[in-house]
Batch of 2 targets.
Target 1
Amino acid sequence: MGREPMIGVLALQGDVREHLTALAAAGAAAGPVRRPEELAGVDGLVIPGGESTTMSKLAHLFGMMEPLRERVRAGMPVYGTCAGLIMLADKILDPRSDQETIGGIDMIVRRNAFGRQNESFEAAVELTGVDGGPVEGVFIRAPWVESTGADVRILAQHGGHVVAVRQGNALATSFHPELTGDHRVHRLFTEMVRDAG
Ligand SMILES: NC(=O)CC[C@H](N)C(=O)O
């Protein structure tokens, strides 16, 4: 790619600003994406944390669900955190009746999996593909990955549960690296976008 790739952050709902800041710190050009025309202009996309049921509803409302599915199917690099991981799952174990996902990763996820006692916590997570020691994982009513298909690479586990995966150009983590000031995961994703260009 001759020019610096442009990375979008899906800005329907969730912690958009934190991802934009983290991407900029990782050396990427980044901007919010709300409309199909904006999606067409980016080389990669981050789907933030937030509330996956709301995000699903808004994606429909904004006419984004099909364009998102098409881009992901076509191999656009995409990185989902928390609710974003749920949006990238081919299947949710316990969806709300009207809840749909973009899909792209052959996995089944369980929403709010870590339970009430432990709705939010931090833990050091050893993440395959990120050098320099574990990342600080911030888990906020986080999902885990219940099962994965043969093409999905497991990148991290916490407490015996899968919390980070990659399939092709789709990366997903249960936790929120955008909240830690450690930009290694955003750097990894930025490299994925550059390599795909
Ligand atoms: N921090 C988050 O993104 C929480 C995810 C939320 N529990 C959901 O199901 O969408």
Target 2
Amino acid sequence: MKVVEVIDLKKSYGTFQALKGVKFEIDGGEIFGLIGPNGAGKTTTLRIISTLLKPDSGSVKVFGYDVTSSPDDVRKFISYLPEDAGAYKELTGLEYLRFIARFFARDEAEFKDMVEKGVQIAKLKDRITSKVSTYSKGMIRRLLIARALMVNPKLAILDEPTSGLDVLNAQEVRKVIKDYTKNGGTVLLSSHNMLEVEFLCDRIALINEGQIARIGSPVQLKQEFNAVNIEEVFTEVIRCSQTC
Ligand SMILES: Nc1ncnc2c1ncn2[C@@H]1O[C@H](COP(=O)(O)OP(=O)(O)OP(=O)(O)O)[C@@H](O)[C@H]1O
């Protein structure tokens, strides 16, 4: 069974059609990257798969459950990190992770494991006991990544996971994401960082103006466009969609 199956997905905001028939599938254990220019429809797609936004038409299934008719079943499998997520500023990082773990853990042992895993992923050292209001942007992002992955979702949906992180912190987060799939998880992420998707993703979908323009592994896409990197592939796909 596919982890995610998106067929002919359409979504409009008023008279503006943001998604015009998006289609892709994700297999278990994959890191699947959605890349595209500003306004291409990445966040809209991720929010629909996360059950936060209703599609106008088309079908989206997560582990075989339809996001529109069975959203509660879908939510059992997923964890969603929004692009602009925040954490409760008056809590410490540790209190925040504990607060979230209480919702997900079925017993005390699982609660303890989740919080420990969250602390490990966040890598905030002794600052984990400082208030979130004192954190830098990058520290908050790491706390939120930890929050998304510590609950052991079968599918992690991460909107711009490394946005606002410096090079070293971004590398750390990429490693955490890779490790997470080694333990059986599947990841759907969006990114503007071409080096990141090339390094991280097993397959990439290029989305442009609400439609998937290309899907493939980084190696396949580079071969198809005779390109040295994914940035070149991206530029060529966008250029072609405007002029070819
Ligand atoms: N709530 C909304 N109301 C009206 N238009 C919206 C709304 N949300 C998104 N849009 C429009 O839909 C299109 C797709 O937006 P979306 O946020 O999905 O793009 P994106 O690829 O994630 O962009 P970015 O890379 O800039 O984050 C854009 O033109 C955006 O302006």
